[in-house]
Amino acid sequence: MSREDTATSPESRSETAAPEVSLAVRPPLSDEELNALFAAAWPQHAPTRFGPVLARSLAWIAARDAAGRLVGYVNVAGDGGLHAFVLDTTVHPEAQRRGLGRSLVRAAAQEARARGAQWLHVDYEAEWEPFYASCGFRDTAAGLMALA
């Protein structure tokens, strides 16, 4: 996706991520399809309402297969300034190991940049370090406080 695409129609633009998978920025997504994707990818997922999350998001990227099924998603939150945050990178198990996750994160980075962010952050558990390194993130010191 190019900056020119962002200026013309960020809500409807799409790009091919992998064979027969297309990416779209900020497309309409239902709780039902997001919960189905998350349940398939994350066994401990509990159904949730995504509307409040999407309403506050800087952007999100969705991946659909040739049949129109949601097979990937990543959210981009922003601080209203120079920082954006990658959240909830999720790929359906049937679509994993094909580069779709990296395509989602790269599209999220491009969209965050187009919307004015200069820094993109991501938190992850140690097992995900190779994946995020392959997306271009470098390891940094950070802090985390559990609130629940």
From TrEMBL:
Domain of life: Bacteria
Key words of the record: Acyltransferase, Transferase
Molecular function GO terms recorded: N-acetyltransferase activity
SUPFAM superfamilies in the record: Acyl-CoA N-acyltransferases (Nat)
One GO cellular component term noted in the UniProt record for this chain: cytoplasm
Region (Disordered): 1-21
Limits of the N-acetyltransferase domain: 21-148
Gene3D superfamilies: 3.40.630.30
Protein name: GNAT family N-acetyltransferase
Organism from which the protein derives: Streptomyces sp. R21
